[in-house]
Amino acid sequence: MKKKTRFTKTLALALTLGLLCSGLAGCGQARNSGNTAESLAAESTQPTSGTQTSESMEAATESTEATAENADGTLIRVASLKGPTSLGLLFLMDKANKGETANTYEFRMATGADEILPLMVKGDLDIALIPANVASILYHKTQGGVEVIDINTLGVLYMVSGEDGLADFTDLKGKTIYLTGKGTTPDYVLQYLLNANGMSVDDVTLEYKSEATEVASVLAEDPTAIGLLPQPFVTAACMQNDALKVIFDLNEEWNKVQGASGSSMVTGVTVVRKEFLEENEEAVKAFMEEHKASAEAINADPATGATLAVEAQIVAKEPIAQKAIPDCNITYMDKAEMKQALSGYLDVLFHQDSQSIGGGLPESDFYYDAE
Q1: I need a labelling partner for 186 at 20 to 30 A (CA). Which of 205, 211, 264, 320 fits?
Q2: How far is CA 245 from CA 182, 236, 249, in A?
Q3: Residue range 61-93, pLDDT digits in tens
Q4: What DSSP line would sit under 261-309, residue for residue?
């Protein structure tokens, strides 16, 4: 017990807990909520530990007001989750602080999508980087009031174990798998991949934990256990115990199943309020270009990205951040490529549980096609 507690505390210190489920717990609680804006929090994301209040949000977010002025003085208020989705913004945030951006920005980071969504509904934010399924829920709740402008993060889920002999996904039959949150994205994705490989939940034992640190502590005590973890917990766990290794990259497993369909496992997307887009389309297009450049920059220069991640208090230690960034699948996809990848992913979730995406697939106006 002491060993487990010590490891959990060590891992918690090594990472900012805001990374936990940034885009991974978005499916949780969807079926139990009402139709008000206030209930979006409950149906859009499974909370981490504790109850989040407006005061805790204020303490948990970072705001950056850039000094650059664009031609018409437009201010864009952008929110993101402390995790891989924010990593792709770091170079843009840095340039904005230096006054080197086309737009004027106000950035904030939150620990959960439930902090961001009410602000989008009220019009207090213009752009948000949120889980893919949560974007669909928001679309339905606002009667089509948001559009997705890009995919910013692909899958960040990996299966970790020290056990040998697990070369094919079907080798999981009869095994116990530890993962976070029943009814969350990791759960839906795993069940989909099991079914696609001729298995079901009856062929494995799923042990649900409330936080990724709990899964990591199980692996620390028993390296032969099998855990499903998001980055950067994967990197931290493997750095803590060299007996552990990645046995399955769920992105690769997803792509094997999907084949040439073009669907991708999508973690995070960027949405804009339709009203803001209609009034400030050129500013939104400028943001898209700057976001793309920022995502490309962190993939090309993880060392600088790690420094920025520590400065932004996303990750506590640079070695973990630098090693994890290449496996966080930070990307930038828009237009037709975005629609193909995202629509296919949402279709999978819809058939797993329609409420996980708000009850139905979004219409075509959900996907922004900038010309």
Answers
A1: 320
A2: 24, 11, 11
A3: 444 444 334 434 589 999 999 888 899 999 999
A4: G----EEEEEEEEHHHHHH-HHHHHHHHHHHHHHHHHHHH-HHHHHHHH
Its domain, for residue 246, covers: 2-10+156-260
* Whole-number Å distance between alpha carbons of 212 and 367: 32
User: Rounded to an integer, what distance in angstroms lies between the CA atom of residue 281 and that of residue 285?
Assistant: 6
Predicted confidence at residue 122, as pLDDT, reads 95
Q: What is the pLDDT of residue 133?
A: 92
Of 260, 294, 309, the residue at which a domain comes to its end is: 260
Average pLDDT in the 260-289 region?
Answer: 92
Same domain (yes/no): 148, 27: yes
Ramachandran area for residue 209 (φ above 0: left; ψ -120 to 50: alpha; else beta): beta
Per-residue model confidence (pLDDT) at position 171: 97
Comparing C-alpha atoms, which of 369, 363, 365, 345 is closest to residue 26? 345
Residues 44 and 162 both lie in one domain: no
> Do residue 324 and residue 198 come from a single domain?
no
Same domain membership, residue 162 and residue 135: no
Kindly give the interhelix angle for 335-352 and 185-196, rounded to the nearest 10 degrees: 80
Looking at the structure, tell me whether residues 207 and 280 fall in a common domain: no
